[in-house]
Each structure stands twice: as structure tokens, then as C-alpha cells.
Amino acid sequence: MSDLSQINNSEYSQFLHQAIDHIKTARTLLAKQVNSSANSVYWNLGKLLFEKQLEEGYGSSVVKQLSIDLKNEFPDMGLSPRNLWNMKRFYERYYQANPKLLRSVAVLPWGHNLLLLDKVQSLSAVAFYANEVAEKGWSRDLLLNAIKMDIYNRTESQLKANNFNSTLPQISVEYANEVFKSSYNLGFLGITEPMKELELEKRLISKIRAFVLELGKGFSFIGNQYRLEYNNKEYFGDMLFFHRGLQSLVAVELKIGSFKAEYVGKMNLYLSLLDKFEKGENENPSIGIILCADKDHVDVEIALQDINKPISVAEYQMLLPKNELQTLILNEINAQETKD
User: Fold this and answer.
1) pTM reported for the whole predicted model
2) Which of 58, 114, 180, 283 is deepest in the core (most CB within 10 A)?
3) What's the domain of life for this entry (predicted)?
């Protein structure tokens, strides 16, 4: 008898997700260790230049010679004069910062740190972007686009559109508000033209790992068009996840247009069925996320006020429209040419 016959498909799927999570965690830790070691070297070199009070101009010849001599010893370390000055900027920027921020930037790739040095002034914004990169594995390009879109200030100013305070155990409310955001960025889909909801769902399924990263830590994908049957009727949810920290099933419903109050009633029913037929004995209530292209906070608040299941309404963004993205790239190229 095959060993696989001893566990059912659901148990094996959970087992597989756990194995994948272990591998991803190990890889992330290794990458952080490598980045942290490199940044530690850059930090100390920057500190040395800072303490010697070298400035671009009169100190240029010293740094140029230092670069030549260091590259003879360490040819693969990227010790150009420009990079040495960047190390000094890195040290100057953070040497008086709080330890938590220092730990956050220490594990970022050097290219990401240079982007934060050039594009972000506020240290609180740096902390936000550093945390997003660490949690979601943003590439340098995605970080650049997030900065250009001013995601930090958008996130800070957005109101939470959910009823968690009245529907979740009090111990879970604060954590749930941290887990679920008011806005999700679907720019990794590369969509520049309008599409139907089913096509959007197919795109997300095809890039489910990227979508899980955008959702944040702790999510495991269970399935799409997840079928539930009750009273001889079938009910389907667009996407179903499980969140380990919250110990809750999470149903995600995708809507192409603006939020409508009727979406809440449909989600409330689906969550009731999940809790009745799928929720484990020791798990918390299932949570619903309605993803819309746009929402009005007042409409959402009214729609949720008498609902007894935990539901959050969030907007999604496609990063940038094609014409805006082209303009952004051209501006970056022109700015670089002017700098050079």
C-alpha cells in the first residue's frame, strides 16, 4: 500500500504547505544573514569615513585612492568611490536612529538601501518600506514604484473598513487589524487593460505566491471557487486561505467595480457556511475580505453595522496605469542622465 493512501488530500495539502513554509523561512533567514553581514561592513566603512571627516570635494582624492587600494585586496566587493560615499551617507543617516530601525535596514539588500537613501526622507517612512520589503520580498523595482505611489502616506491615512471590533474575540482584534490592510497592490499581475472578475481571479491564481506575499505573513492558499453545499444549493467563494496566526479561514471575494452593500450579505452567508461546515473545533471565526476597485468608507460602515461575521472591505491597485508607468520610467531615465 502506498504511504500516500494513509492521509487524505486535505491533510497532504497542509503537510506540503508546511514543508514549503519551512524552506521559504530558511531561505529568507539565509538572505537576511548575507545582507546583514555585507551591510555591517558598509556601516563600518561609512563610520570610518565619517570619523575622518572626509567630505566630497577636498576628500575626493583620499577616497579615490582608498577605493583603488581596497579593490586590489577585495576585487568583488563593489568598493568604488561612489559606493564608499554611499556608505558614509548610510552611516550618517542611521547612526542616531533607534535600534529597531537599524535592524530593519541591516537585512535589506544594498540596492534597496540606496533607494531609500535617495528617495525617502522620513525615518518612519523608511521603517515602513523596510518592513514591507522584508515581509513581502519586494524587488528593487517594486520598492521604487511603491515609493513613487507614496504607499506609506496612503496607508497611514486610510481608515480601517471592517467590523472586527464587534465580531472577533477581543484578543484577536488588534492582530487582525495588523494582518488585513485597507489597500492591496496587484501590480505584479501586469494588468494595463480592463478585465472581468473571473479573469482577474485566474491571473491571481496563476501568480498565487505573489498574491500571498502581498497579503502578508501567515497565509496558506486552500483553493479558488471553493464549493460549499447547503439545502440543495451550491455556494462558491472566489479564493479561500487559512491564516496560521489568527487560526481562521479567510475568504477573499474579488469585485471589479466599486463596493456595493449587497456584497456584504453574500459574504456573510458564505462565512456562516464556512463556520458551519469547514471551521475546525479549535479555530476562530472565519473572516471575509471583499476586494474592490474602489470603496466609500461611509457606505462600508453602514453595510457592516448589523453584520455578525467579521468582514473587511479593501481596495486593490494595479500599481500604475501603462501610460503613467511609461512616464515614470522616462522620468527616471532622464533624471539619471542629468545626474551622470
Assistant:
1) 0.50
2) 180
3) Bacteria
Residue 158: its pLDDT value, please? 57
Domain identity same for 165 and 297: yes
The domain of 123 spans: 3-155
Closest CA to 242 of 291, 283, 292: 283
Instruction: Give CA separation, 312 vs 34, 188, 292, 299, in Å.
Output: 38, 23, 11, 13
Q: Are residues 143 and 8 in the same domain?
A: yes
pLDDT tens by residue, 211-235:
776 788 888 889 889 999 999 999 9
109, 31: one domain: yes
d(CA 202, CA 239): 10
Q: Which of 155, 186, 201 represents a domain boundary (last residue)?
A: 155
C-alpha cell recorded at residue 304:
457592516
**HSE, side-chain direction, 13 A CA sphere, residue 70:** 17
3-state secondary structure of 292: strand
Closest CA to 241 of 11, 7, 8, 14: 14
- CA pair distance 299, 305, nearest whole angstrom: 10
Provide the 8-state DSSP code for 16: H
